[in-house]
Amino acid sequence: MDSLTILIGKMPTILASAAPEGSDVSIFEKFGVNWPKFLAQVLLFLIVYMVLSKFAFKPIMAILEDRKQRIAESEENLKRIAAELEEADIKKGEIISEANARAERLVSEARESAEAVAEKKRNEATNEAAQIIAKAREAGELEKNQTMAELKRDFGRLVIDTTGKVTGKVLDDEDQEKINSEISAQISV
After folding, report:
1. Which of 1, 39, 44, 160 has CA atoms 20 to 30 A from the CA of 22?
2. String of DSSP letters for 149-162
3. pLDDT at residue number 158
4. Helical pair 11-18 and 2-9, crossing angle rounded to 10 deg
5. Residue 33: its H or E element
6. pLDDT at residue number 58
């Protein structure tokens, strides 16, 4: 601003030196420059320039600078948000991968557990079936023995009754015992 004032102040000297030598009429006079009006206009221009500079240019420049800073901050925030978003996507992928691996592990463990439980139940069922079969065999053997004992008694009575009727003799307890032992020995074989 000072250089502009100096330039305007030196303007008449510069213009006067531009006039050709030997001519009595100066260039200012040819263009009809009225120095008092010209200086008043220059003074008004400087006043308007200083007022505009102080009240308009500086606030406008401050607003523009503030806007420039906000735009720069916004761009930085945008870059930071984009980086955070990319990082979040990576983390999301890692979390999903980890969850899938964990789910697969849980499914595998559940499968193994189910197989172990099924195997255990099969073994228990096999053991129960073996116990039932063993008890059934024991019961069958016991029933067979009881039936054989009854059969021997009945057969012995029949033999004694038949022998008594055939021989016509009444058998005493000693004879009956002897016949029963012989018949039992023959049936066991």
Report:
1. 39
2. HHHHHHHHHHHHHH
3. 76
4. 40
5. none
6. 86
Quick one: tokens of 86? 């990319």
**Cβ atoms of residues 158 and 183 within 8 Å:** no
| 44, burial (CB in 10 Å: exposed 0-12, middle 13-18, buried 19+) | exposed
In terms of residues, how long is the chain? 189
Could you read off the pLDDT of 124-159 as tens digits, one per residue? 999 999 999 998 889 888 888 888 888 777 777 777
**In whole angstroms, what is the distance from residue 22 CA to residue 90 CA?**
87
Find, among 150, 160, 151, the residue nearest to 180 by Cα. Answer: 160
Question: Is 182 in contact with 154 (CB distance < 8 Å)?
Answer: no
**Amino acid letter, 39:** L
The radius of gyration computed from the CA coordinates of the chain, to the nearest angstrom, equals: 66
What pTM, to 2 d.p., does this model score? 0.38
**Under 8 Å between Cβ of 160 and 179:** yes
Q: Quote the CA–CA distance of 182 and 146 in Å, as a whole number.
A: 19
Contact (Cβ atoms closer than 8 angstroms) between residue 18 and residue 27? yes
Residue that the structure tokens 């720069």 belong to: 72
